[in-house]
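Quick note —
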Amino acid sequence: MSRPGRPHVGIRADASPSIGVGHVVRCLALAEELLERGCTVTIFGSVTVDWLAAPLERLAIEVVAAPDAPEALTSLLVEQGVDALVIDGYDIDARLGATARTAGLVVLAFHDGDFGAAQEADIHLDQNFGAVLHHSASSGAISLAGLDHALFRREVLDLADLPHADHAVPTVLAVFGGTDPNSAAEVVVPLLLATGLPLDLTCVVARPDLREAVDALPRAEGQSVTTIAPTPDVMRLAASSTVTLSAAGSSIWELLHLGVATGIVAVADNQEASYREVIDSGVAAPIGLLSELRRSEAARADAKATLRRLLDDPAYREDLGHRGRRLVDGKGRARVADVLLTTLGDRPD
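Predicted structure written out below.
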């Protein structure tokens, strides 16, 4: 429940081993900003990824089960005293935004290109590089598009100010989403090891079978591999690494802001447009589309060549880091919170 005089913002988002954590993590960045401004924040949904328990507890954010039906959820939101609703998820009923607005709530809806764009909202947010204004902007809704609105957690903003460590043997962090639901590690890590170059790899794996597969991979002299469970400290690990290999989801904006030399792979259809925009801009190294890496020897050969360059070319890594840092200023969460709270304040009583 909200406290008197404090705006109460509800977030409709889920995180699970099959869905991943991206929706909830970027919502947590916005939640941090809203909490710092005196709001109450509640998540309505399901969060079943263990490592998210720590940041939720630290922020004192309650997670409340969300009914599937928009009408039932809206009734719950009104009962809980929610003033504004943030919607982030591709499989959430597309009627929710309209239903919540009819009940008097201000609605902010995330989307990634066409994914999630069907929600009716007062504010549409696509934080991806090269994003275009939502079509409803012409009818009075507010559209926020592009990296000026990328949302970063406080941890990432603080890490961006730390100097990068220098390693005699390149250290590599491989993290393909918070839970790697598409098993990208079993495809990309063998290509990395096939370069034959010395490296110290830390690979984030969520499932025992994937951990066993990575641990069993052959490695050349001078190569070490450590597998770890998903952790809230992943960005701290990235900030201290020579190279990070990542899925092309929302975490890449955090990595670019940190100035980490990053190789990216599109692990799902909804990441392909963003992947191409980032690669075309020259701020990250192209590992490829996961679907092509699985079936094409030519794609795997190109990926190995890129991975070899990342490991063996310090000037290339430095250039990528500088380009990424210049692209993302880290002020997106403040901009989005400004718009949300202004819209909420302008709402008729």
